[in-house]
Prior knowledge:
The structure holds 2 protein chains of 2 kinds. By secondary structure, chain A is an alpha/beta fold. Helices cover about 35% and strands about 25% of the residues of chain A. Chain A has 2 domains: about 1-165, Stage V sporulation protein AD (Peroxisomal Thiolase, Chain A, domain 1), CATH 3.40.47.40; about 175-325, Stage V sporulation protein AD (Peroxisomal Thiolase, Chain A, domain 1, 3-Layer(aba) Sandwich), CATH 3.40.47.40. Chain A has helices spanning about 20, 45-65, 85-90, 105-120, 135-140, 195-215, 230-245, 275-290, 305-310; strands at about 1-5, 10-15, 30-35, 70-75, 95-100, 125-130, 155, 160-165, 175-180, 220-225, 250-255, 270, 295-305, 320-325. Chain A is globular. In chain B, about 80% of the residues lie in helices and about 0% in strands. Chain B has 8 helices and no strands. The longest helix of chain B has 29 residues, at about 20-45. The termini of chain B are far apart. The interface of A and B includes residues 149, 151 and 234 of A.
Amino acid sequence: MTFKYKNVYINETALVTGPYEKKGPLESYFDKSYSDLYFGGNTWEGAESKLIEESVNILLSKLNKTKFDIDVHVSGDLLNQLVSSNYASSRLGIPYLGVYNACATSVEGLIVGANMVEAKQVKNCVVSVSSHNNAAEKQFRYPVEYGGPKPKTTTFTTTGGASCYLSYNKTGIKIESSTIGKVVDMGIKDAYHMGAVMAPAACETLYEHLKETKRKVDYYDLILTGDLGVYGKEIFKEYLKDEYNIEIKNYDDTGTMIYDLNKQPVYAGGSGPACAPLVTFGYIFNQMKKNKLNKVLLIATGALLSTTMVNEKYSIPAIAHAISLEVIE
Amino acid sequence: MEKSKYNEIVKKHTPKEDRLFNAMISFLTGGIMGVIGEILLHVYSYYFDIPTTEASTFMIVTLIFIGCLFTCFGFFDKWVGFAKAGLFVPITGFAHAMMSAALDFRKEGFVTGIGASMLKLSGSVIIFGVVSAYAFGLVRLIIFGG
Lengths: 329, 146
């Protein structure tokens, strides 16, 4: 399912991160970085909701607007019942839609927001996502201080909050089209190999997007997946070639870009809903504004993981949504 | 594409874990743990005049205490990450698993947090430890008469 947009623009973005991202190569593109994981609060869950609240507040101050100027806030995260988004929204007081597609939430939110702006149902929309390493570890894996050995294919959940402001004012980056993906399940049951879980979903969405827009893969200057990690990236390329006969060169993965993979102990790279927007809204938008990149396709991939279902021996389904971003001519 | 064929692609791009290296590290660190335990045992029985059977209890309690303390200081997880089975198979691992879960859930309250979730990881060790002790005890009783 592909939508085309005539008049939707990402006017402004705001990025807040934790300490690990601060030590990574993209530090200069973030608006604010904390050096601990509590951000002055008591709990990790509270800290994660602060990431969303703070990124929205920074966004509003950059735009010189108040919360009363915002028509709708679309937000999502990884925690059960979307607590980070819900608690941030209870403090923000903006009409709110909570969305969940694991690490594909960012693009899901952008599609929901862009469709409302395009249909002129709203004047503007703020889209947010967050993830927090310790909160995610606590919920999905082992206790944080346990630190047991993990396989090399494990990804490291990014700590960050990303917000962006969508409207039909022609500034910033244009949202040109988007494709809603299907849930794909290739029978992978390994919760420590998310790249393998998500790669087929990313291929499927890319193929559908190219088919429905009648484009070739080299139409884009860069195709980004977020976030398959080092090994998922290779699986993506090979599966894309074998199954859809598409050779891809202009390709990268946000999970491998946000950290210094040689120096930081992040295994196969970054993950989490915040990973793709932290890289895209910061570094990639910067490159686009400098005209080094003109057309970028962001495919956010989410492993729809439930620890209960994995324990009950079900395989892990995955989803990917794509959004085409262009420099305004 | 068939799931089995996809599995082959996944397998091809999945790195091998360094099993031999990990086993060596675990063997060495686990051995060092054994040596430390033995030293403690001797210290307790020679210098404090504690009978050897009781000294072993003292030794275990000491190691559990140190495991818990180091977990709370926040660096034991890095040691476990390095030493792997060398640290989490001995008694220190049990203490560490319990304490790290307690640390994670301490903000959720004494009863609903620490009490309910402290044995999240180590609960299985207790349950299957008791079950296997019972099973092996029974085998010993039947074969060797106790």
